[in-house]
């Protein structure tokens, strides 16, 4: 059934359809409506979920960890400073192999204070051992809540499902919702690796000294490596069951293009408009959208990006390291050993919720085309789109 929904409403509706055992949360802008709306489903008796309102995001994730260790299916929602406050417990959840799913309305971090959307929060948590999925539209975000949960419970790893704060979280879009019973049948029951409620004694959260800590971390790294194939299987299963097909990344534009933009999140839609305009003018450009940032789809990125002459990596954040943002650095590492690889250029845009327009993409593509013709050289870093003079 098609319904008009904001990203936050879609997230709460998806959670209602899932009917998790436990949701522990502390609301924060711009994800507040997820918790508010889901609490209405709880109050109305539409779900059996144990809803735990806690006093902080640190407590929220701690409660999620405890519930998941007991074998429960667990979800929560947060953003920005809330995710930052959870940071310590993110590592606990991933290292203990707990498939908690966290819905995130991505938002800038202090300081200065901003309540608007960028990817500073989730990119700051990129190495905490969580899978990360990013949506371009409310539809894509809604679908990936189910995809992420199934992948998380098969891989025994936690997952973040990210929407751009306000841009998607508060924007009304048509969403083709899934049948609730079919969703629940598709997800099935969680089969935990262990439960602290078992009669058989187990150790959890134990001390690991230098003689075994490396081995423990290696097992966790292997789980993330295997998660790639699990996500691929879940994507295929989702397409077969519900008729909507997704993949780790998406190519859009002229198949013979020499230049491309690589991007994450909602701005991909604006970039596609620019691609359409330029392609109609006979200019061969393309856009590559990355849906899954963790695990990083290394082979897919190599196969896709190696065909281009120049690729601009557009990021809604910065790493403040004097050489592009996190996506730029990781893509550079992925491509480094290839004999045929594109020239990469780093661009930053949209931080603190600043709008990006088709004209901004067109200007960026024109820069790349001029560079491909040898008419212009673009600095490797410190290229900011929409920066005031």
Descriptive account of the structure:
Helices cover 41% and strands 18% of the residues. By secondary structure, the chain is α/β, with parallel strands linked by helices. The chain has a seven-stranded mixed beta sheet with strand order 3-2-4-5-7-6-12, sandwiched between helices. A six-stranded mixed beta sheet has the order 9-11-10-13-14-15, sandwiched between helices. Helix 2 (32-43) links the parallel strand 2 (22-25) and strand 3 (50-53). Helix 9 (267-280) crosses helix 12 (358-372).
Cα-based radius of gyration, to the nearest Å: 21 Å
Helical/strand content category: alpha/beta
Contiguous low-pLDDT stretches (5 residues minimum) are none
Task: Summarize the amount of helix as a percent range.
Answer: 40-55%
Give the overall silhouette. Answer: globular
- How far is the first residue's CA from the last residue's CA? 48 Å
The SSE order reads EHEHEHEHEHEHEEHHEEHEEHEHEHE
Nearest-integer average pLDDT = 97
Number of strands: 15
Strand content: 15-25%
Number of helices: 12
Largest sheet: 7 strands, mixed
Q: Strand arrangement, largest sheet?
A: 3-2-4-5-7-6-12
Observed structural traits:
seven-stranded mixed beta sheet; alpha/beta; 389 residues; 41% helix; six-stranded mixed beta sheet
What is this structure's SSE topology?
Layout: E1 2-5, H1 7-18, E2 22-25, H2 32-43, E3 50-53, H3 57-69, E4 74-78, H4 80-95, E5 101-106, H5 120-124, E6 131-134, H6 138-155, E7 159-164, E8 173-176, H7 180-187, H8 213-242, E9 249-253, E10 259-263, H9 267-280, E11 285-290, E12 292-294, H10 298-305, E13 310-315, H11 326-335, E14 343-348, H12 358-372, E15 383-384
Parallel strand pairs: 2-3, 2-4, 4-5, 5-7, 6-7, 10-11, 10-13, 13-14, 14-15
Antiparallel strand pairs: 1-8, 6-12, 9-11
Helix pairs in contact: 1-2, 1-6, 3-4, 6-8, 9-12
């Amino acid at each position: 059934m098609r319904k008009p929904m904001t990203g936050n409403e879609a997230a709460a509706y998806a959670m209602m359809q899932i009917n998790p055992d436990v949701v522990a949360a502390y609301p924060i802008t711009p994800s507040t409506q997820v918790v508010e709306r889901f609490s209405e489903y709880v109050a109305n008796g539409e779900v059996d979920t144990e809803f735990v309102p806690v006093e902080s995001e640190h407590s929220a994730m701690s409660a999620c960890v405890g519930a998941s260790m007991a074998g429960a299916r667990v979800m929560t929602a947060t953003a920005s400073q809330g995710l930052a406050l959870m940071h310590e417990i993110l590592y606990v959840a991933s290292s203990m192999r707990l498939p908690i799913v966290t819905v995130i309305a991505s938002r800038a971090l202090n300081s200065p204070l901003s309540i608007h959307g960028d990817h500073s929060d989730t990119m700051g948590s990129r190495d905490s051992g969580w899978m990360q999925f990013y949506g371009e539209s409310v539809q894509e975000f809604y679908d990936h809540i189910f995809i992420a949960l199934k992948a998380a419970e098969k891989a025994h790893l936690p997952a973040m499902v990210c929407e751009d704060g306000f841009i998607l979280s508060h924007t009304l879009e048509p969403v083709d919702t899934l049948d609730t019973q079919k969703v629940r049948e598709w997800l099935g029951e969680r089969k935990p690796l262990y439960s602290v409620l078992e009669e058989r004694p187990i150790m959890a959260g134990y001390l690991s000294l230098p003689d075994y800590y490396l081995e423990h971390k290696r097992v966790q790294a292997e789980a993330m490596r295997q998660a790639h194939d699990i996500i691929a299987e879940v994507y295929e299963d989702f397409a077969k069951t519900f008729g909507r097909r997704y993949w780790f990344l998406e190519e859009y534009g002229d198949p013979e293009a020499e230049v491309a933009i690589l991007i994450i999140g909602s701005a991909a839609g604006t970039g596609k408009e620019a691609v359409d305009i330029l392609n109609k003018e006979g200019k061969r450009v393309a856009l590559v959208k990355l849906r899954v940032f963790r695990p990083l789809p290394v082979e897919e990125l190599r196969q896709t990006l190696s065909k281009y002459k120049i690729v601009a990596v557009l990021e809604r954040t910065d790493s403040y390291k004097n050489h592009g943002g996190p996506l730029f650095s990781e893509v550079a590492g992925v491509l480094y050993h290839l004999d045929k690889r594109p020239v990469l250029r780093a661009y930053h845009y949209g931080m603190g919720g600043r709008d990006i327009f088709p004209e901004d993409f067109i200007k960026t593509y024109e820069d790349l085309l001029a560079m491909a013709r040898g008419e212009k050289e673009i600095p490797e870093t410190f290229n900011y789109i929409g920066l005031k003079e």
